[in-house]
């Protein structure tokens, strides 16, 4: 029986280890080796920090990096603010059939790919698109205005793309909040604001953090939405990684950029977990 | 405020207004995509020039290539289906093994391993892509240098796309299946053993049927996520592009409404998939693991 149990364990461990070591750990080791070497002659490499120095010395890369981080934080914040009322409505205000219908309605747009959703925004916002034509028809603007290729457009696209990943953890966090707590607080003279701050938000914190982390991560690593909605001026960091890897074939530089992005996302996820006192494993299982 | 408390009229009104605005925001882009699949104009843009089915049915002779004559588009659609099938198969198989590993075994470092299994969810897709690309080509170069072996499947192409998507989708499948296995009542299995059932019989007649909703759910999620994946795929793609990559290329060039047509097709297909999933056995509580 003992050997049989051991055999079982090995059989179950094998796929997990193959996956984690072969597709996650070793590739990242390879990436770190790449990022820490420099090509001195054809097929000759030596250890070097040149890639990180390039990043440090070239303002364009710095600028893009900081910009990506700040826009991602901003997009996460906006997503949270927009998702909360809807999550509250679904979790606490509607009941029965309309509740599940609203819930499903939140899901539906995310059953189709990001490409399709971005196409929709492009048709809506580009100069020859629906919204500029509508504004001309209303008489707001004399001629169609280009609404693509602005930072605000990128933000709209990013918020749209990640909405679902905020709404769902929020709903599940709010649903577990006992209504009687709110009623009690109300009876004791609390108003909307104080109840929100002292009861709802502390209770929903795990859901809020889970949503924020996932949204932030997806936004930071997004490539499609910034490049299509932001055009040539999007200046998104994943775009730099793509350019180094695929266009310029400068894998060393691309690997260094990749690590910087990974470091940034890890640092912010970590900081978010620390600030809210949550644990990574629990948060990820909720999202 | 909650339903049981008095809410002033303005608050109720603003809840409704906000709800309507929110869902308009969610559905407007999709609606626009669908409508302009039928516009009789060479670009998906206003003004409305009348209804046409050219973007579906047009063939080379008419000057407009509709979706069903666009062999490149149909080819990439098929590529996506094949990739998604492989990713689904691998993710559900490995995800099930992982679930049993987490729930049923004890060994040193299990805690660390199950945390590591979540790591792919917080690695940006682009980085998963480039790291797998770099590692695969290192192995391919090594094999070439040492043994003169040309390992074609390790160069950018569909096998790498499958591996890249699998590397994080399996995390999601694992979460979904583990969540259900956790709620399984082990006494059922023990009873079966006491009655003389073999290991295989117990697995086949008791445990797997119980897991079935989670298996189907994770298969559907894996399929969709693979179909939608762009970031990881873009880094690993070779000469055959899956649909998302192909659409991205066309969107940069300035799209014709064929893109709207294929998008509408995807919307209908995923709606059908979603409806069948929801109509299915009620036992499969919606697993919010995506």
TrEMBL record, chain A:
Pfam families with a match to the protein in the record: BPD_transp_1 (PF00528)
InterPro entries the record matches: MetI-like, MetI-like_sf
Membrane topology summary: Multi-pass membrane protein
TM spans (from-to): 69-90, 102-124, 152-174, 204-224, 255-276
Keyword Transferase on entry: no
Key words of the record: Cell membrane, Membrane, Transmembrane, Transmembrane helix, Transport
ABC transmembrane type-1 domain ranges (all copies): 65-272
Entry similarity comment: Belongs to the binding-protein-dependent transport system permease family. CysTW subfamily.
Protein name: ABC transmembrane type-1 domain-containing protein
Organism taxonomic ancestry: Bacteria, Pseudomonadati, Pseudomonadota, Betaproteobacteria, Burkholderiales
TrEMBL record, chain B:
Subcellular location(s) of the protein: Cell membrane
Main location: membrane
InterPro entries per record: Bact_Polyamine_Transport, MetI-like, MetI-like_sf
Gene3D superfamilies registered for this protein in UniProt: MetI-like (1.10.3720.10)
Bilayer topology term: Multi-pass membrane protein
Keyword terms, alphabetized: Cell membrane, Membrane, Transmembrane, Transmembrane helix, Transport
Boundaries of every ABC transmembrane type-1 domain copy: 77-277
Segments crossing the lipid bilayer: 16-38, 77-101, 113-137, 157-179, 258-278
KW Cell membrane (keyword) present: yes
PANTHER family, alphabetized: PUTRESCINE TRANSPORT SYSTEM PERMEASE PROTEIN POTI (PTHR43848:SF2)
Family: Belongs to the binding-protein-dependent transport system permease family. CysTW subfamily.
Protein name (database record): Inner membrane ABC transporter permease protein YdcV
Organism expressing this protein natively: Rhodoferax lithotrophicus
């Amino acid at each position: 029986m003992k050997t049989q149990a051991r055999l079982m364990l090995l059989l179950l461990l094998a796929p997990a280890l193959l996956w984690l070591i072969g597709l996650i750990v070793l590739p990242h080791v390879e990436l770190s080796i790449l990022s820490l070497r420099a090509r001195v002659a054809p097929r000759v490499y030596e250890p070097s920090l040149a890639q990180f120095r390039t990043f440090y010395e070239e303002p364009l890369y710095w600028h893009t990096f900081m910009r990506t981080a700040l826009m991602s934080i901003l997009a996460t914040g906006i997503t949270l603010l927009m998702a909360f009322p809807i999550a509250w409505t679904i979790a606490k205000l509607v009941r029965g059939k309309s509740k599940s219908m609203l819930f499903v309605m939140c899901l539906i747009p995310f059953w189709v790919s990001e490409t399709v959703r971005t196409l929709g925004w492009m048709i809506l916002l580009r100069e020859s698109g629906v919204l500029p034509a509508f504004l001309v028809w209303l008489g707001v603007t004399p001629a169609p205005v280009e609404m693509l290729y602005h930072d605000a457009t990128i933000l709209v696209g990013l918020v749209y793309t990640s909405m679902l990943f905020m709404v769902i953890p929020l709903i599940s966090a709010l649903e577990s909040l006992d209504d009687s707590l709110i009623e009690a607080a109300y009876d004791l003279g609390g108003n909307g604001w104080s109840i929100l701050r002292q009861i709802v938000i502390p209770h929903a914190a795990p859901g809020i953090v889970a949503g924020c982390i996932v949204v932030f991560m997806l936004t930071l690593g997004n490539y499609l939405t910034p490049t299509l909605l932001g055009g040539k001026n999007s200046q998104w960091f994943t775009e730099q990684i793509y350019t180094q890897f695929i266009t310029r074939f400068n894998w060393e530089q691309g690997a260094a950029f990749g690590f910087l992005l990974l470091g940034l996302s890890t640092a912010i996820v970590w900081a978010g977990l620390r600030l809210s006192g949550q644990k990574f494993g629990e948060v990820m299982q909720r999202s | 405020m909650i339903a049981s408390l008095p809410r002033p009229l303005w608050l109720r009104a603003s809840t409704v207004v906000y709800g309507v605005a929110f869902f308009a925001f969610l559905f407007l882009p999709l609606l626009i995509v669908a409508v302009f699949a039928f516009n009789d104009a060479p670009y998906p843009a206003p003004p409305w020039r009348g209804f046409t089915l050219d973007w579906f049915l047009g063939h080379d002779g008419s000057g407009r290539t509709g979706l069903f004559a666009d062999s490149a588009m149909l080819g990439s659609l098929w590529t996506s289906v094949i990739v998604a099938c492989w990713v689904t198969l691998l993710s559900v198989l490995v995800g099930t093994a992982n679930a049993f590993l987490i729930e049923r075994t004890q060994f040193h470092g299990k805690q660390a391993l199950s945390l590591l299994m979540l790591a792919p969810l917080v690695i940006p897709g682009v980085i998963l892509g480039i790291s797998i690309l770099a590692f695969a080509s290192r192995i391919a170069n090594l094999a070439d240098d040492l043994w003169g072996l040309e390992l074609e499947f390790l160069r950018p192409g569909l096998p790498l796309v499958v591996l890249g998507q699998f590397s994080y989708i399996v995390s999601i499948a694992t979460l979904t299946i583990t969540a259900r296995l956790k709620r399984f009542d082990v006494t059922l299995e023990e009873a079966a053993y006491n009655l003389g059932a073999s290991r295989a019989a117990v697995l086949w007649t008791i445990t797997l049927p119980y897991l079935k909703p989670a298996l189907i759910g994770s298969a559907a999620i894996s399929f969709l996520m693979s179909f939608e994946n762009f970031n990881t795929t873009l880094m690993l793609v070779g000469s055959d592009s899956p649909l998302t990559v192909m659409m991205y290329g066309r969107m940069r060039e300035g799209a014709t409404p064929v893109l709207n047509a294929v998008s509408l097709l995807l919307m209908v297909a995923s709606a059908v998939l979603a409806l069948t999933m929801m109509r299915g056995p009620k036992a499969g509580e919606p697993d919010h693991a995506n």
